[in-house]
């Protein structure tokens, strides 16, 4: 599983690190504490071995004696003593021992002549001991000293044995708290990146001048932000050039169209002149729509701007009524009888409603009715009795230059694209659905404004 978020990746890696650390750290601490305890044991037992060795006295007959002072003897008593000892001659024979059976604490052949600590089981007890070589006269003797780890006064090994379970459960909560602190730190560190992302999301055709902030972002991301701003500069230049070219071309075409229209009007009446007039009307309509598209690319609606949607629809219906009558259709305005105030630009909304009505007129046969309904909640519905729009085409029809039937020369697929652009600029929406009984319902939703 791959995480797309930087914070999610960091958290995932931290969780893995916490799991590994929460196991390894107690083990490492346990090992170090155990080694420290063993070292203390070893030093203490060596000291006791040298103390026992200091009590060994050579005898005239060549032997040795062990004279432990009375006040020290309880430390080595068999039943309750903290330490046990044994003194061996060079051949490994036990000369003195605190054990009841008088045996050595450890096998002499395993100890050899080196001074080190050992662990052995003797009568069921775990002994920790050392063997120290001690010269007495001209002979070398070995002093063994051990400690029963089960003795009530041995607390170091008790600490070691209880250390692991206590540290193991406290390690994970501590690391979890550190993880939560890391998450807060990373979120604060990436705050500038989120702000840059929000700024980038606001960039569009109407806000091509916006750039990402480069000062507050982390130094690792600053080159990327700088490169994005440079790319936005190039895109803005290209977008502006394309928009200006479209507008300039549309303006330049108006004059030749007007001259051509005048020359066609001077021709003798007949089918050829009528066909040329129809073609010129369609071309002029297309040029006007291209100009509308170019104007709407950089169109913004002021936050305090409002329009009377009812009045806009009255003007649009009045404007398009002659075309409907000419095609043998009827058109009516219904719904709210008075003003319906919405947030919007009057001229832009007029273009949108006009194109919706024109679309209904041009795509319905003669003899049908077209109804423009205005609702109190800032919605315009254009209902027709035409063939309807297939469900597969209901999103495509709002794209520029999209036409289902390209054999029809009177349509260039720009009217509904203008409606969609106007709706987007007003934070509204436009949609189409089937009309019960046949036909289509185009709905333009806008944001109501205070009356």
Give the SSE string.
HEEEEHEEEHHHHEHEEHEEHEE
Share in β-strands: 15-25%
Please identify the oligomeric state.
single chain
Task: Give average pLDDT, whole number.
Answer: 77
List keywords for this structure.
451 residues; alpha+beta; five-stranded mixed sheet; 9 helices; 48% helix; 18% strand
Structure overview:
The chain is an alpha+beta fold and 451 residues long. Helix content is 48%, strand content 18%. It contains 9 helices and 14 strands. It has helices spanning 6-54, 108-111, 156-189, 191-201, 222-265, 271-297, 309-326, 346-362, 415-425, and strands spanning 56-58, 64-66, 83-88, 94-97, 117-122, 125-136, 139-148, 306-308, 330-335, 341-343, 369-375, 379-384, 429-434, 440-445. The strands form 4 sheets. Strands 4-3-7-6-5 form a 5-stranded antiparallel beta sheet, covered by helices on one side. A 5-stranded mixed beta sheet has the order 9-11-12-14-13, covered by helices on one side. It has a two-stranded antiparallel ribbon with strand order 1-2. Strand 6 (125-136) and strand 7 (139-148) form a beta hairpin. Helix 6 runs parallel beside helix 9 and helix 8 (346-362) packs antiparallel against helix 9 (415-425). It is rod-shaped, with a radius of gyration of 49 Å. The relative contact order is 0.07.
């Amino acid at each position: 599983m791959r995480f797309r978020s930087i914070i999610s990746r960091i958290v995932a890696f931290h969780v893995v690190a916490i799991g590994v650390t929460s196991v390894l750290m107690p083990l490492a601490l346990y090992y170090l504490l155990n080694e420290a305890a063993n070292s203390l044991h070893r030093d203490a037992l060596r000291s006791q071995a040298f103390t026992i060795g200091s009590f060994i006295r050579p005898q005239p007959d060549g032997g040795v004696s062990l004279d432990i002072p009375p006040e020290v003897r309880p430390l080595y008593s068999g039943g309750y003593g903290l330490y046990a000892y044994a003194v061996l001659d060079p051949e490994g024979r036990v000369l003195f021992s605190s054990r009841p059976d008088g045996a050595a604490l450890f096998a002499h052949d395993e100890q050899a002549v080196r001074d080190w600590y050992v662990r052995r089981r003797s009568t069921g007890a775990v002994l920790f001991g050392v063997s120290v070589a001690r010269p007495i006269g001209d002979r070398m003797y070995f002093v063994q000293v051990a400690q029963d780890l089960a003795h009530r006064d041995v607390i170091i090994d008790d600490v070691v044995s209880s250390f692991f379970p206590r540290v193991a459960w406290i390690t994970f909560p501590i690391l979890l708290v550190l993880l939560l602190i890391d998450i807060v730190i990373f979120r604060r560190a990436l705050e500038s990146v989120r702000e840059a992302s929000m700024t980038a999301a606001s960039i569009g055709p109407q806000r091509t001048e916006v750039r990402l902030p480069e000062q507050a972002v982390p130094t690792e991301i600053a080159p990327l932000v700088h490169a994005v701003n440079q790319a936005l500069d190039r895109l803005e230049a290209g977008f502006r050039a394309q928009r200006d070219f479209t507008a300039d071309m549309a303006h330049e075409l108006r004059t030749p169209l007007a001259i051509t229209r005048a020359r066609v009007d001077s021709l003798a009446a007949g089918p050829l002149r009528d066909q040329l007039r129809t073609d010129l009307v369609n071309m002029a309509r297309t040029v006007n729509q291209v100009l509308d598209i170019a104007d709407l690319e950089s169109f913004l609606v002021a936050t305090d701007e409002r329009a009377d949607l009812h009045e806009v629809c009255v003007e649009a219906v009045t404007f398009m009524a002659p075309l409907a009558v000419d095609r043998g259709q009827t058109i009516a305005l219904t719904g709210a009888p008075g003003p319906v105030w919405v947030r919007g630009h009057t001229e832009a909304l007029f273009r949108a409603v006009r194109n919706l009505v024109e679309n209904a007129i041009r795509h319905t046969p003669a003899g049908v009715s077209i109804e423009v309904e205005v609702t109190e909640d800032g919605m315009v519905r254009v209902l027709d009795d035409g063939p309807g729009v297939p469900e597969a085409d209901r999103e495509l029809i709002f794209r520029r230059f999209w036409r289902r039937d390209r054999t029809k020369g009177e349509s260039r697929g720009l009217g509904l694209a203008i409606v969609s652009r106007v709706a987007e600029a007003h934070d509204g929406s436009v949609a189409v659905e089937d009309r019960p009984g046949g036909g289509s319902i185009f709905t333009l939703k806008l944001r109501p404004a205070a009356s």
